[in-house]
Amino acid sequence: MADITRRLGWRHLRGAPTAHIRHHRSGALVHDGTGLSFWFRPLTAALSEVPVDDRELAMTFHARTSDFQDVSVQATVTYRIADPAIAAARLDFSIDPDTGAWRGTPLDQLGTLLTETAQQHALDVLARTPLAAALVDGVAAVRERVAAGLGAEPRLPATGIEVVAVRVMALRPEPEVERALRTPAREQIQQEADRATYERRAVAVERERAIAENELASRIELARREEQLVEQRGTNARREAEEQAAADAVRAEAEAARSVKLAEAEATRSVGLAEAEAARTLKLAEAEAARSRQLARAEAEAAREVGEARAQAQAAWLRVHTEAGVDGTTTLRALTATRLAENLPRIDSVTVTPDVLTGLLAKLGGDAEGAR
User: Fold this and answer.
1) With CB atoms 3.0 to 4.6 Å apart as the test, which of 24, 80, 149, 203 could cross-link to 121 if both were Cys?
2) What's the pLDDT tens digit per position in 221-245?
3) How far apart are CA 161 and CA 83, in angstroms?
4) Which helix (H) or strand (E) covers residue 50, if one does?
5) In this structure, are residues 45 and 76 in contact, taking their beta carbons and an 8 Å threshold?
6) What distance in Å separates the CA atoms of residue 79 and residue 56, rounded to the nearest whole number?
């Protein structure tokens, strides 16, 4: 759409680089070209804007094959307006001088023309092709036939239209037919999958059998080696026992010899100790005897000296009493009392009971009265 600006009763048009502008004033062509920019009066101007860029026209239509099966075709036609003057003369590309918008729908007319022409050629080629062949080679056949038909269509050059390319994206049957057609392929794929599964299982079983055989062979070999190991262990144990017995014998002989030597040394040491102990005991006995003899002599000498001293004391005591005029009987009694006092046990304490005290007091009272 052209960009139109208003200024005091004038209009300024600025076209796009991909739009061809034709300006007629009073029936005369004033401006003609792409990307134009000019002033004009809206009351006397007739403007046309023809796009010259490549345009994509997507189309979808239904067709029927030779075996009466419905298919849908999705295609795209790329075209451009090669002669804007012819196109503007054959189609209504006029624009409003105030807004710049097309007064009609020229591109829709071009789309209808191209769609109907392409559909006509596609229906023609599909009507002579069975469904299976159409699904296999129908896309290329339809594209070539539509491109050739649009290129040979005389109305398109007469309208200034040039077809650039034709593309057919898909050619699909009805969903039920498509599912029916997929069934054999799916069955075949499923059969191939089942065959592959069976083969894989067979290979797995074969491998498991080989593994089992290898395990059995390994177990047999392991049992044989264990048997050899047991035999070798028995041989080693027997040899070790023999060596241990020999070592024990040598050790016993050495222990016996050492015990004999130790016994001899112990006997020798015991004899020496006994002799030394006997000598020491003899010396101790002699020393004890000498000491006992000395003690006996000392005790006898002391006893003799004590006896002599006591005798002298007794003699002196008697002599004193004799000189004092004491008779012999009194002296003997005093001496007897002294001996008794020396031999009496030691009295630590004396307990005087009331009875004893009463008797003693009565005795003392009687003696006092007698004295009076």
Assistant:
1) 149
2) 999 998 899 888 888 888 888 888 8
3) 7
4) strand 45-51
5) no
6) 7
Which is more confidently placed, 345 or 355?
Answer: 355
Give the Cα separation of 88 and 22 in Å (integer): 8
CA distance 19 to 31: 13
pLDDT digits (tens, 9 = 90+) for 122-173: 998 888 888 888 888 888 889 999 999 998 889 899 999 999 999 998 888 8
3 state DSSP class of 70: strand
Given a contact cutoff of 8 angstroms between Cβ atoms, the answer to whether 55 and 18 are in contact is no
Burial (CB count within 10 angstroms: exposed 0-12, middle 13-18, buried 19+), residue 109: middle
Q: 106-126 and 131-152 helices cross at what angle (nearest 10)?
A: 140
Task: For residue 256, give the 3-state DSSP assignment.
Answer: helix
User: Which runs of consecutive H residues, i.e. helices, occur in the chain?
Assistant: 84-90, 106-126, 131-152, 155-159, 175-323, 328-343, 354-371
pLDDT at 162: 93
- Give me Rg for the CA atoms of the chain: 79
